Amino acid sequence: MQPHTLGIDLGGTKIEARVFDADWQEIARHRVPTPKDYAQLVDAVADQIAWATQQGAEIAAVGVGAAGLVNPRTGLTLTNNLPASGRPFPADLEKRAGRKITFLNDCRALALSEAVFGAGQVKSVVMALILGTGVSGGLIVNQTWRAGPTATGGEIGHTAAPAHIITAYGLPVYDCGCGRKGCIEAYISGPGLQRLATFVTGAELTTHEIAVLRATDMAGVWALWCALVAELIHSLTLTVDPDVVVLGGGLSAIAHMIPDLQAAAAHAQIAGFDAVPLALAQGGDASGARGAAYAAWMEHRNSAGDQA
After folding, report:
1. Exposure pattern of 13-43 as b/e (b: 16+ CB <10 Å)?
2. Which residues form a coiled coil (predicted)?
3. To the nearest 5 percent, what fractions of the chain are helix, strand and coil?
4. Is 4-105+284-307 assigned to CATH 3.40.47.10?
5. How many CB atoms lie within 10 A of CB 1?
6. What is the distance between the alpha carbons of residues 40 and 249, in angstroms, rounded to a whole number?
7. C-alpha separations of 194 from 17, 174, 236, 251 in Å
8. What is d(CA 224, CA 160) in angstroms, rounded to the nearest whole number?
9. Which residues are bridge partners to 183 per DSSP?
10. Tens digits of residue pLDDT in 243-297
11. Distance between CA atoms of 205 and 5, rounded to whole angstroms?
12. What are the residue ranges spanned by the domains of the chain?
């Protein structure tokens, strides 16, 4: 029997383990709640790995896509959604599980999955933009994920918001959870969209309510939000010039988002030049686990080649 690959999508509310066969078809999945205690978190993820080893074939590689970052210098985790900040979570988990584990940010895992299996699979350079509770992304070149020396690549939500739009609307310069001020995430994440609605109209609405009213009462708020997102897309285009920007995260489920953002991106682009194409992520809630599994498989394959 061909070895299988395990991908784990580790988020603030659930730990989703998915086992993939040699053709990247999902053959088993198992979900448990995310504990609020660090030791219990390590145990819960290790138990998911143990569960996968009981599914009938060898698990050749294990990948974990987790919300947050791992400092490559210290090995310590930085995360707002897991009880692991300031702790050596990767090392502790490997020790507890007794095997090598590939770690990557969950947004980078989604980007890799979409580049290999989803909306970007026929493209050479794929940028993912995740719009949800936070804002992040990932850059995949020739279906390969690269971890840079700082491990912060893809944290595009913590680039600066565009000054000309902030000034034109008189928007406050918000504090960001990263410790900086004026990050674009504070304006275009889910909470950021709600913040814009309250500032512009005085109404306190959910993102769903704003989406429903985006052509009527919230039209001005929606146009402002699209303009801000388009400026981020413009910056990514000028920096990377990707073949496609794949949109994921909870806000990407808003109907007709792509046409609205594509028009805003065209307006933000340098006059006379095309805007980058936008596409919706295709993998749904499977993307994070599948991307983590694929990253682990690539690392395992490369390691085996080096030892040959």
Report:
1. eebbbbbbeeeeeeebeeeeebbeebeebbe
2. none
3. 40, 20, 35
4. no
5. 8
6. 27
7. 32, 13, 24, 12
8. 16
9. 160
10. 999 999 999 999 989 999 999 999 999 999 999 999 999 987 778 899 999 999 9
11. 42
12. 4-105+284-307, 119-280
Place of tokens 């928007």: 171
Continuous segment of H or E residues that includes residue 131: strand 125-131
Q: DSSP readout, 13-64?
A: SEEEEEEE-TT--EEEEEEEEPPSSHHHHHHHHHHHHHHHTTSSS-EEEEEE
Nearest alpha carbon to residue 141 among 173, 178, 108 = 108
User: Look-up: residue for tokens 């402002």?
Assistant: 224
pTM above 0.85, yes or no: yes
As assigned by CATH, the class of the 119-280 domain is alpha beta
Task: Render pLDDT for 156-215 as a digit per residue (tens, 0 to 9).
Answer: 999 999 999 999 999 999 998 888 999 999 999 999 999 999 999 999 999 999 999 999
Cα 300 from Cα 22, distance rounded (Å): 14
Q: Which residues lie below 8 Å from residue 148, measured CB to CB, with a gap of 6+?
A: none
Task: Determine which helix (DSSP H) or strand (DSSP E) holds 26, and give its type and residue range.
Answer: strand 26-33
